[in-house]
Amino acid sequence: MSVLTVLVVLVGLYAVCRCMIPWLVQSNSTLALLWYDFVLEMTLDLLTRTTRPQRLLRAVIINAVRGDPDSVIRAIDHFCKHTEWAMNIGDEKGAILDSVVMETSPSTVLELGTYCGYSAVRITRLLPPSTRLITVEMNPEYACVARQVIQHAGLQDKVCVLEGQSADLIPKMAEMFGIQTFDFVFLDHWKDRYLPDIRLLEDCSLLAQGSVVLADNVVCPGTPDYLNYIRSNLNYKSRFYQAHLEYTRVLDGLERSEYLGCRQGKRQVDRDTDR
């Protein structure tokens, strides 16, 4: 095989990997998650000897203004759109998150699933001065990166990053922080934990009448058991916000559920859909 043939093959493979595959996966949920979260991430980890969170943190340090939360958000969004996809809530769904936080104006906030701190920064920058965010992350590397991202945004005094399993930490919240209930809860961790953890929050009496729970990725990758529970439960009034998986054209959405207090029975929910 001639050198020219080898070069043509290499250029063709590069074009497929750099252009064609990302275009194909933009509208297919299975391909998108497989490509971005497995193939591409593992390949870049191997080639750079760094991890995706480390690469995201470097982009923040280089491109974001220290002490400016909005600059940090813009830097992460730019990195995820133009350099490397990451599983933040993203700009489109992030705007919905912003609106729910401002509408709720919470005094106590819990986030389950910190990842690299993107949503923690989005939420905290909108909170009243006296409000702190408690965020739970089971992966120590993610938690370490998140603390540095949050510090770069200048919000370290308003955010407490806890490392560990949500199932272990939720029952300790009242004792650890003196919190009776949470006004706002954001679910963005392992999807199979949404249902057990909402039930655990109920069992620990950490939801009060008027508490708002916002759940991400309820369509992609999906949380059918959680949605069935929350939408058929007399204790909640729910609303679905249609959107797209972060930085793609894949359909996704968020479920906003207001806790109405402890009632009995099930119901069918009429859903309002924002398109």
Description:
- The structure is a single chain.
- With 275 residues, this protein is of the alpha/beta class.
- It is 49% helix and 18% strand.
- The chain is built from twelve helices and eight strands.
- The protein has helices at 3-25, 29-48, 52-63, 69-82, 90-104, 118-124, 140-152, 166-169, 173-177, 194-203, 218-222, 224-231, and strands spanning 109-112, 133-137, 159-163, 182-187, 207-215, 236-244, 251-259, 273-274.
- The protein has an eight-stranded mixed β-sheet with strand order 3-2-1-4-5-7-6-8, with helices on both faces.
- The chain is globular and about 75 Å long.
Give the end-to-end Cα distance, rounded to a whole number of Å.
54 Å
How many E-type strands? Answer: 8
Pattern of helices and strands: HHHHHEHEHEHHEHEHHEEE
Largest sheet: 8 strands, mixed
Q: Helical percent range?
A: 40-55%
Mean pLDDT: 88
Low-confidence stretches: 267-275
Strand order of the largest sheet: 3-2-1-4-5-7-6-8
Percent of residues in beta strands? 15-25%
Rg from Cα:
20 Å
Envelope shape = globular
Structural class: alpha/beta
Give me the number of helical elements: 12
Indicate the multimeric state.
single chain
